[in-house]
Amino acid sequence: QLQASGGGLVQAGGSLRLSCVGSGGTFSRYAMGWFRQAPGKEREFVSAISWSGVSTSYADSVKGRFTINRDSAKNKNTVYLQMNSLKPEDTAVYYCAADRFTQAPPRVAIYEYDYWGQGTLVTVSS
Fold first, then answer.
1. What is the percentage of the chain residues whose pLDDT exceeds 90?
2. DSSP codes, 83-114
3. Which of 27, 65, 80, 99 has the least C-beta neighbours within 10 A?
4. Angle at 115 between CA 112 and CA 118, to 5 degrees
5. 91 has pLDDT over 80
6. Non-local CB neighbours of 49 within 8 Å, separated by 6+ positions
7. What does the alpha-carbon distance between residue 70 and residue 65 come to, in Å, rounded to a whole number?
8. Is the dihedral of CA 124, 109, 17, 98 positive or negative?
9. Measured between alpha carbons, how far is 39 from 59 in angstroms, rounded to an integer?
10. Strand partners, 37
11. Can you tell me the distance from the alpha carbon of 8 to that of 98, in angstroms, rounded to the nearest whole number?
């Protein structure tokens, strides 16, 4: 089970930090990703991190503004998405997901992810 949190309302240029905690499984061995879905749009890839935390991927739209990492504790079951310089177009429901793929770099396609959290809403006002 994946539990995402940290969403909220923020002004443009502000920051938020999303968290995703995995429980009930060996999520420390899985790649983890963040995806988002804006109103009326399809779900899209945002960022992903390998199980080791060494390899990361970002969508072009968030490169340089978002940073993904996972906790350095033994279990590595928590993944974070630090979002800076937020824009109104970042408004969406953000979902975390886990991929049992163990190679690097982490994959970016939605259909490749096996487990999904419930989503957390991020609203960026202009």
1. 81
2. E-S--GGG-EEEEEEEE---SSSPP--GGG--
3. 65
4. 120
5. yes
6. 31, 32, 33, 55, 56, 57, 68, 69, 70, 79, 106
7. 17
8. positive
9. 19
10. 93
11. 23
Residues 37-84 have pLDDT tens digits of: 999 999 999 999 998 889 999 999 999 999 999 986 666 689 999 999
CA–chain centroid gap for 97, Å, is 7
**Pair of tokens at residue 99:** 């991929």
Calculate the alpha carbon distances from 59 to 27, 50, 63, 100 in Å: 23, 15, 6, 21
Distance, CA of 92 to CA of 86 (rounded, Å):
12
| Partner residues linked to 50 by β-bridges | none
| Residue pair 34/46 in contact by the 8 Å Cβ criterion | yes
